[in-house]
Structure formats: C-alpha cells, structure tokens
Amino acid sequence: MRAAAQTVGVVTGLLVEADCLSGSSANPRIYVSAGNAVNAYGGAVQLIADGAKALLSFGIAGGLDPNLPPGTLVLARAVIGPRGTRYDCDPNWRGMVCSDARGHIDFTDGAIAGSDSPILGQAGKAKLFRGSGAVAVDMESHAVARAAKEKNVPFLALRAIADPAGRDVPEWIMIGVDSGGRTRIAPVLAKLLFRPWEIPRLLELAKDQKTALSALRRVADLAALTRF
Q: For residue 11, how many C-alpha atoms fall within 13 Å in the half-sphere facing its CB?
C-alpha cells in the first residue's frame, strides 16, 4: 500500500508545457519559469515554501542523442548541471511512474543536461552529448534539482524531445517567448518577413514541438507523476 500522496511542485519553462498537466486529477502546483534557470530555481524554492514535498521538472527538451526522435519521453535517472554537478532523481518515485506507465507508455533512460543558455545548434548539441553523456538538454531541470537537493526533497525530471540533435535552430527564436513563458507569434512572424528562407525549418520545429507536447499530455494522467 502506498503512503498518502504528497503535494508535488512542478516547474516548467513554458505555459504550453504547464497546460499539458491540465488533465492531471492531482492539480499540482506549477511554476512557469520562461526558460530561465534563475527563475526556475527561485520558483522551485517558492513551491517548497508553499508546501510542496517533492519537485518535478516537466516539459520539452532539446535532443542530444541523435537516435532520439521528436516526441521521445525521457524519464531521467539524473540531471547534470553546467559545471558537471550530478543530481540523481529519486529512484522510488521514478519506479512508481514507470510502474504506472507499464504497457502503454515507454520512457528513455539516461541523464538530462542542464544549461543556463539555449543549446540550439547541432555542433553545440554534439559537444554536450560527448562531454556529458546526457541524452537531452533543457534550461530548468538543473536549477530545480539544485533546489530539491538544498531543501532535501525528492526530485524527478520528465522531458519530451522537441528539438532533435540533428537540427539547427536560429537563436533569434527566443523572441517567441515572453517573461511569463507565453508563446509570442507576432515577433516571430515579423522576423520571418526578412528571413523567409527560415520558414521551412521553423515549420518543422513547430511540428516537432506539437509532437512533444502531445507526448507530455499522454503522461499527465499517470497518478505517480504528480501525486508522489
């Protein structure tokens, strides 16, 4: 018999990632960091102060392993920070999620690398893959993991690949996210007026992000994910 469920605090980078959890019956507390590691750390600490007993980093990620296609779900065993610090995910919590998912949802093993800045080019992804051995990268998980370790609460990271290892993404794409983690279409369209050759690449990115978000919505009803 499981112990009584504990409140889980969830940190995402984007509002659309947080919206994927709207199907969760647990109604977890969520903080949207706008893809900023400093915000993610502060939000994680605040979630614990507000009563969260465990922390989940949840959302999309860039692929580092070239064998992982868009939509691959990574349930990390560990997160590796920018300076090489390793944060292990809680093995009992991870095991419960795997048990709940058995037979209908598959996860990829491996570590997630944390970065304080976007890793958008193929060369940068390949270098990080070689140096860290991580299979994916995002800008929140290492900050959330650090907060969890400092506050001595369980931590877990679940990410879906949206930007595969073999793609270059223009750095200016970050103008499409505002300080609240909301997607801004108008600035992106304005940029494309002067860079029409970028349109096919961004259409592919949008398609793959949709695939990743769909994968995240599929795991939203796993009881163990948000009711530790």
A: 35
Looking at the 3D structure of the chain, how many domains does it have?
Answer: 1
CA distance 72 to 82: 23
Domain holding 211, by residue range, is: 8-226
Give the phi and the psi of residue 12 in degrees, each rounded to 5.
Answer: -120, 170
Residue 26: inside a domain: yes
67-113 pLDDT, tens per residue? 999 999 999 999 999 999 999 999 999 999 999 998 889 999 899 99
Closest CA to 63 of 74, 54, 55, 48: 74
User: Residue 193: how many CB atoms within 10 A of its CB?
Assistant: 7
Over residues 9-60, the pLDDT tens digits come to 999 999 999 999 986 666 788 999 998 999 999 999 999 999 999 999 999 9
Q: What is the value of pTM for the model shown?
A: 0.89
Secondary structure string (H, E, C) spanning 67-127: CCCCCCEEECCEEECCCCCEEECCHHHHHHHHHHHCCCCCCECCEEEECCCCCCCHHHHHH
Q: Are 81 and 111 in contact (CB under 8 A)?
A: no
